[in-house]
Amino acid sequence: MSKSIFYHAGCPVCVSAEQDIVNLIGVDNVEVVHIGEDRSRISEAENAGVKSVPALVTPKGNALHINFGASMADVKA
Amino acid sequence: MSKSIFYHAGCPVCVSAEQDIVNLIGVDNVEVVHIGEDRSRISEAENAGVKSVPALVTPKGNALHINFGASMADVKA
User: For residue B44, how many C-alpha atoms fall within 13 Å in the half-sphere facing its CB?
Assistant: First the structure.
């Protein structure tokens, strides 16, 4: 894959981080996924190593947790 | 300021995140500061809202804590 994926759950911390990440790496270089709404992608995020949101998974597959909005347990609750 | 600033302290988590961030936003768009070595910039990082390293301060001045390597208290110890 060549795009990064930004996983979030709509929390204020998530929205703020999303704006920063889009500004930094460019809207064309990141797919934004709301795993609170698109719950079918929660397992994909977990498999990528995402422990909390917001998080960015790089094209190399590294999970970067950015600040802290909510744990995956919170997202799944 | 137009560059982001990446603050780190040489920890493994920091080094890994630095490589990811440089790959994502480009080496020309980020200044890398090792506050374990350049201790004169610790207060600058704290003033920008950095609570732990590694952290990226965006051109807009937002502090993005990326994963967790060490707290600022650890860095100052």
Answer: 13
- Check residue A2 and give its pLDDT: 82
Partner residue opposite B64 with nearest CB, options A29, A58, A66: A66
To the nearest whole Å, the CA of A64 is away from the closest chain B CA by 6
- pTM of whole model > 0.80? yes
Looking at the predicted structure, is the pLDDT value of residue B1 above 60? no
For chain A, strand residue ranges (E) read 4-8, 30-34, 52-57, 63-71
Nearest chain B residue to A52 by CA distance is B67
Measured distance CA(B71)–CA(B50) in Å, rounded:
9
Q: Is residue B50 classed as helix, strand or coil in its secondary structure?
A: coil
A14-54: pLDDT as tens digits = 999 999 999 999 999 999 999 999 999 999 999 999 999 99
Q: Which amino acid is at A70?
A: A
Contact check, Cβ <8 Å, B64/A4: no
- The region that residue B54 occupies, defined by phi over 0 for left and psi between -120 and 50 for alpha, beta otherwise, is beta
